[in-house]
Design brief:
Elements (H helix, E strand, L loop, with lengths): L11 E8 L18 H8 L10 E4 L3 H11 L4 E2 L17 H10 L12 H13 L6 E5 L1 H10 L7 H9 L4 E8 L16 H5 L1 H10 L26
Parallel strand pairs: 1-4, 2-3, 2-4
Antiparallel strand pairs: 1-5
């Protein structure tokens, strides 16, 4: 049975995106090696009440994401390189980083983004990592640019200005919940076994049907740090 077929839209799961807490910027180290500031550690701990019971805890392989997940959950996450931030070789450490990254999210790529992953590449990478952990609800400690690229990829955000505006509101940390279709569940209806090969076998058309099958979405944003800005704007369900 093709996903999104007769079994309908009821088979969904939640993916909880945890944007990492505030790190200590260190121009002598690559950002993937940055650790959390004392305020960032406190903010991550303050989000412990948001941890959904029974979810699989995952993170990118970057230190700030691992540390955020560990402090929130009180246990070690399983690290997956697919959840890492956008690959940005040669990015300078300067005052133009927000403008440069905002242009990337908007899709306005130019010489500032030479050799960077494109938004589509980053979104597809993240989607493949989500698909590699089928069946269960997930908590994923990750990063702002790549999570927005994925939300665009699966249809929760419009590309362009809407995506850039959403990214600009994200705080350190930020907790976002979306509901997606469980396209890989087994066909016998007995044990709910998740077919790991289903998305690959069905191809891009399956992914489109999965978006339609989501039906409804729930989104909640949390400010672990009471001094953070207002929560991110609500997401819309995929069409």
């Amino acid at each position: 049975m093709a996903c999104g077929g007769e079994r309908g839209p009821g088979r969904t799961r939640q993916v909880h995106l945890l944007r990492h807490a505030m790190p200590i910027p260190n121009p002598q180290l690559p950002p993937s090696h940055w650790t959390l500031s004392s305020e960032g550690r406190a903010a991550a701990r303050s989000m412990r009440h948001k941890l959904p019971a029974g979810s699989i805890l995952l993170s990118s392989t970057e230190q700030k994401a691992i540390e955020t997940a560990r402090l929130m959950a009180g246990r070690e996450p399983a690290a997956d390189i697919g959840f890492c931030e956008v690959h940005r070789p040669g990015e300078p450490f300067d005052e133009f980083s927000s403008e440069r990254r905002g242009a990337w999210i908007h899709g306005e790529l130019d010489d500032r983004h030479r050799d960077w992953e494109t938004p589509d590449q980053a979104g597809r990478r993240f989607a493949q990592a989500v698909e590699a952990h089928p069946g269960s609800d997930l908590v994923i400690a990750t990063h702002g640019m790549v999570l927005v690229a994925w939300l665009v990829q699966i249809g929760y955000l419009e590309a362009g200005q809407a995506a850039e505006s959403y990214w600009s509101t994200l705080t350190f940390p930020q907790f976002i919940t979306v509901e997606i279709a469980n396209c890989g569940r087994g066909d016998d209806g007995d044990d709910g076994e998740y077919r790991r090969d289903s998305l690959a076998a069905e191809g891009p058309g399956c992914r489109e049907r999965c978006r339609e099958a989501s039906g409804a979405a729930r989104q909640s944003c949390g400010r672990g740090d009471p001094r953070a800005r207002d929560s991110a704007p609500p997401l819309r369900p995929p069409r």
